[in-house]
Amino acid sequence: MNTTTVSGTFTATLDSLGSIRKFISDSGRTLGLDSGKTYKLSLAVDEIATNIINHGYTESGIKNGRIDITVSSDDKVFSVTLEDTAVPFNPLESKIPDEAALSIPLEQRTIGGLGIMLARENVDEFRYHFSKGKNINTFCVNLK
Amino acid sequence: MSFSVKTETFDNVAKLTLTGELDSSTAPQLMEEINKVIPQRPSELVMDFEQLDFMASAGLRVIIFAKQKLGTAAKLFMVKPQEQVLETLRMTGLIYSVTIVEHYPE
Amino acid sequence: MNVIYTTAGNILIIAIEGSIDSNTAGDIQVNLYERVAEATNVLLDLSEVDFVSSAGLRMLLLIYRQIKSRNGKVILSGVSDEIKDIMALTGFINFFEIFQNKADALNSF
User: Fold this and answer.
1) Which of C79, C85, C89 sits opposite B93 (nearest CB)?
2) Which residues of C touch B92 (CB under 8 A)?
């Protein structure tokens, strides 16, 4: 079993989003994740990172917050973990729009919930836990 | 929602015949079949839509996925899509990525 | 992220280049919505867009509502498969006509 790990730390500001996505897609490419899955994973990470920046740290009143990202791959699963010290927030507790809600005409749609939906639905497994003052969001994609 | 898919492979071709309605509850069945044939690297993926009465956006996602997995070397054929399905393919621009035919083989 | 606005008759063509995320959408939105408020129809050309997050979907939604409330048309061109996929996942794909390129899109108005 061959495991490779790469870590990065990013300032929790919106202008880090491009760098965060690049970090994920570069790692995906290097570690053999197909381009379709890499794209979806970047999207999922972007959505959660955006939430951490826009809500998490803003609500904490913390300036100079950071997001620590670890990418890890063995022969079966490619994982990305985001850690932050902002207010506790569990994306699994958000209600994902159901089929009916997604069919509502755009004139009447509420935009809320789509970001979290895109995060959870674009990876094979999404996990969250809160530990030692940190939010830990984990995204897993099967390599095969 | 009733749905079924029959899969045949011959030469370098994978042919899937769809019956019924393709929506978010039935799309996983189609996805399973696509995932079975893709590793065989067919040069042509044929989807017989003649008996497909309805396709929701979940079905579009499976087609987009198949297209990406097949790669540029392989061709994606659709046989006799019904009017509503054809209209969906046209509206979304997916019609440009597939070859619509009356019969397969042509 | 760059945006080029062109007027062709009563169609506002918005050509975006780059990634549409919460950061870049935030940068251009004031100007974009001001222009959309004056427009009858919109052609949104995404052929140079490589990424769209929910921030981009929000932008699409707001453009759609503005233009539809005045009975205009919003048409998209050059949408990549990845972006079509998230539009399908979120139900957005049912509300837009999508063309491969700008020329075909313009002819359809």
Assistant:
1) C79
2) 84, 88, 93, 98
**Residues on chain A touching B24 (C-beta within 8 angstroms):** 99
- Contact by Cβ (8 Å): C96, C75: yes
Place of tokens 């499976």: B62
Q: Tell me, yes or no, whether C78 lies in a domain.
A: no
The pTM (predicted TM-score) of the whole model is 0.95
Q: Choose from B35, B68, B69, B70 for mutation: most chain A CBs within 10 A.
A: B68
Contact between chains at A36 and B24 (C-beta distance less than 8 A) = no
**Cα distances (Å, whole numbers) of residue B101 to A1, B4, B46, B53, B84:** 47, 21, 10, 17, 16
Structure tokens at A52: 């951490």
Q: What is the domain-level CATH number for residue C50?
A: 3.30.750.24
CATH code of the domain covering residue A29: 3.30.565.10
> String of b and e for C43-64 (b: at least 16 CB within 10 Å)?
bbbbeebebbbbbbbbbbbbbb
The range of the structural domain enclosing residue B15 comes to 3-101
Which CATH number goes with the domain that contains B69? 3.30.750.24
**Domain carrying residue C12:** 2-73+83-97
> A24: distance to nearest CA of chain B, Å?
20
* pLDDT one-digit tens code per residue, A18-47: 999 999 999 999 998 999 999 999 999 999
* pLDDT one-digit tens code per residue, B55-87: 999 999 999 999 999 988 899 999 999 999 999
Residue B78 lies in a domain: yes
Specify the 3-state DSSP secondary structure of A75. Answer: coil
Element (DSSP H or E) covering residue C49: strand C41-52
Number of domains in chain C: 1
Q: Which residues pair with B4 in a beta bridge?
A: B19
ipTM: 0.95
